[in-house]
Input
Amino acid sequence: MKRLSIFVSGNGTNLQRIAEYFLEYWDITIVNVVCNNPKAYAIERAKKLDIPVRMITKQDFNSEAFIKELQDLDIDLIVLAGFLWKLPENLVKAFPKKIVNIHPALLPKYGGKGMWGHHVHEAVKAAGETETGMTIHWVTPVCDAGEIIAQYKVALSPEDTVDDIAEKEHQLEMEYFPKEVEIIIERMKE
Ligand code: GRF
Output
């Protein structure tokens, strides 16, 4: 049995998509959802999916106790699905090649500090890019700099608004993020 913890801060569409994708899997379970934003709609989604929610404060998040909590839960893979806090080095070190993140652009472009959500799509639009995409990467202490696991692209037209770009990219996430998580888990079993 592979045990996942999904970290969220916002709407939670990736959380929902991943949870629904693994519903029929007997050997993959989402142990909990870790959330740092009491207003996140992802909390409602987790409740509807019957997944325990662990609300986290900044102090908690940087504590050794939180790392021990995840280790005691035998978490095999931490999935950052729209989680907006940078992970502390001790947490990353405690889960080497066991933490993945999804970023709404084709890293290394449009990554790093301040590059999240609409800020990314606005930058892609402003640069007149002819394509955008999503990136799944291993998490390191340096924001958005970890080894890339997978990328998916979509073509853009000059008429595309920032919202169009965001929607096109979001469709990729809904399609491919669960599948890539599954591939990562299968590799862990080898
Ligand atoms: C996604 O666009 C993801 O790429 C980014 O944060 C967003 C989260 O969306 N890191 P949701 O909360 O899963 O709907």
User: Anything to note?
Assistant: The helical segments are 13-21, 41-48, 58-61, 64-72, 89-94, 118-126, 162-189.
